[in-house]
Design goal:
Blueprint: H1 3-9, E1 17-19, E2 26-28, E3 32-37, E4 43-46, E5 54-59, H2 62-70, H3 73-78, H4 84-95
Antiparallel strand pairs: 1-2, 3-4, 3-5
Helix pairs in contact: 2-4
Bound molecules: zinc ion (ZN).
Length: 103
């Protein structure tokens, strides 16, 4: 039997992982929040994880967002200047997130 046929029957085992731009730790993609620089150049939260554009990932806790926004890591990662309106929206989103020191 060709090896390719055997391999295709196996379930996918690798969990997609991404690096949080806030704390730099690697997590399962589904546990991270995707931020996308949309085709219009605006930066926003992408709850679906499927929006078109360049994406960056952050843990779902406030310290990571604070770090990413204050230290401009998000801007650097997305290679874009975040507009004041987008920044406010991101901060608003971050305020809804739990604070988990050390997470
Ligand atoms: Zn993080």
């Amino acid at each position: 039997m060709p090896k390719a046929a055997v391999r295709s029957r196996l379930p996918p085992r690798r969990v997609p992982q991404r690096t949080c731009v806030g704390c730099g730790s690697v997590n399962a993609k589904r546990q991270l929040v995707r931020i996308v620089r949309g085709l219009d150049g605006e930066v926003r939260v992408d709850p679906t994880g499927k929006a078109a554009g360049r994406g960056a990932y952050l843990c779902a806790n406030r310290p990571c967002w604070d770090a990413a926004l204050k230290k401009k890591r998000l801007e650097r990662s997305l290679n874009v200047a975040i507009s004041p309106a987008s920044l406010e929206a991101l901060k608003g989103y971050a305020e809804e997130l739990p604070v988990e020191p050390g997470a």
